[in-house]
Design brief:
By secondary structure, the chain is α+β, with helices and mostly antiparallel strands. Helix content is 32%, strand content 34%. A four-stranded mixed sheet has the order 1-2-4-3, covered by helices on one side. It comes from Methanococcus voltae PS.
Length: 71
């Protein structure tokens, strides 16, 4: 599943990530992209606290991309 949180600032990217994960089954992947770079660390922290796995987390000048495996 893909989730684009561009145009939003914290806490919305984390809340949208949580909402998307809540609709998914265990073992599914969620790819979150956005343009508010501080959200990258917040999403990674949230995902790890909830017991999911961060497969990759990359940020660049344009924004970020996080790939999450739902536990």
């Amino acid at each position: 599943m893909d989730l684009d949180v561009s145009g939003t600032v914290c806490p919305m990217p984390v809340l949208k990530t949580k909402k998307a994960l809540d609709t998914m089954s265990s073992g599914e992947e969620l790819t979150v992209t956005g343009d508010y770079k501080p959200a990258l660390q917040n999403i990674v922290r949230f995902v790890e606290e909830k017991g999911h796995k961060v497969i990759s987390a990359d940020g660049n000048a344009d924004g970020f991309k996080v790939v999450i495996l739902k536990n």
